[in-house]
Amino acid sequence: MSDRTRDDSGRFSEKVSDQDFLKLFDKTDDAFLTAPEIAEEFGVTRQAVSKRLRRMEKEGLVKSKSAGANAVGWWSLVAPRLSPTAEKQADAASQEDAVSLEDLESESDSDA
User: Fold this and answer.
1) Which of the four pLDDT bands, split at 50, 70 and 90, describes residue 9?
2) Which of 3, 12, 48, 54 has the smallest set of CB atoms within 10 Å of its CB?
3) Cβ(107)–Cβ(99) below 8 Å
4) Domains of the chain by range and CATH?
5) Per the record, which residues fall in region Disordered (predicted)?
6) According to the model, what pLDDT value does residue 1 have?
7) Mean residue pLDDT across the chain
8) What phi and psi values does residue 35 have, to the nearest 5 degrees?
């Protein structure tokens, strides 16, 4: 029996976004995931996951490939959005090691 909560109309109250799917792809060490693996992670049916993935594939967010008679592997084509904290850290890091284009060229010339 599922421990998911339902609202007053009987629908599940949790929401899963495309970003949630992209984050799942991002955090796994596997080259790809299958719909049953994703369904297990989110606690929904394989069919619901497959439908969402097909829509995301049409939008260019994910890609799929058949891997046997019934198996389909899915992987992300884009990274998930950064959290506000991670975005600030990335911006700060990019400023710390920033160099002018001229200095960048001279660095590559000195390596040759």
Assistant:
1) low
2) 3
3) yes
4) 13-81 (1.10.10.10), 82-112 (no CATH)
5) 85-112
6) 36
7) 83
8) -60, -40
